[in-house]
Amino acid sequence: MITSAVLFIYFTFLHPLHLSVCDIYLNEKTQSVEISQRIFADDLESALRPLLGEKTDLFKPQNPEQLSAAIGNYVMKNFRLGINNKQANINYLGYELDEDVVWVYMEVPKVQKLNKISVRNTLFFEIFDDQLNLINVKKDGRIRSMKLVEDKEEDFLSF
């Protein structure tokens, strides 16, 4: 009992969870692939600090346009998508804050069918060796998932 309590306290308070969740959805009406990434704000601030050369505060940015561009550059550098065996041209749309989470939005226009998708997501691998990036792909009302970690940066699904 005491061992369980100690482990709970260790994993809850002393060992933070390093996780991002990416949702990918084929919107057949707009013929686009919609992508949203949920990431912890403090993890993103840690990743942006060396890129911006200063302390980064997502909640009170000194230059919101520069911050948005830096977020877009960081995410686009670490996220690749292949659709039907072709490299996808991803558009960064922006981000929004939701308490301690940052939502990053992207899309791939002009996608009529989704037969195969490959995802490479290396967000935060450079700063956390225990980073886990979950990918959820929704198609035809079903959700299929991938788990990406430092020694498995890329995976694919066929439909």
Summarize the structure in words.
With 159 residues, the protein is α+β, with helices and mostly antiparallel strands. Helix content is 25%, strand content 43%. The chain is built from 3 helices and 10 strands; from the N terminus they run αββααββββββββ. The protein has helices at 2-14, 41-52, 64-78, and strands at residues 19-27, 32-40, 79-83, 86-87, 91-98, 101-109, 116-121, 132-139, 142-148, 154-158. It has a 6-stranded mixed β-sheet. It is globular. It starts with a helix and ends with a strand.
Write the layout of secondary structure elements.
Blueprint: H1 2-14, E1 19-27, E2 32-40, H2 41-52, H3 64-78, E3 79-83, E4 86-87, E5 91-98, E6 101-109, E7 116-121, E8 132-139, E9 142-148, E10 154-158
Parallel strand pairs: 1-8
Antiparallel strand pairs: 1-2, 2-6, 3-4, 3-7, 5-6, 7-10, 8-9
Residue share in β-strands? 35-45%
Low-confidence stretches: 3-12
Task: Give the mean pLDDT.
Answer: 90
Largest sheet: 6 strands, mixed
Output the structural class: alpha+beta
- SSE topology string: HEEHHEEEEEEEE
Q: So how many helices?
A: 3
Return Rg in Å.
17 Å
From the N-terminal CA to the C-terminal CA, the straight-line distance is 46 Å
- Share of helical residues: 25-40%
Q: What overall geometry do the principal axes of the alpha carbons give?
A: globular
Total strands: the figure is: 10
Going across the biggest sheet, name each strand in turn: 5-6-2-1-8-9
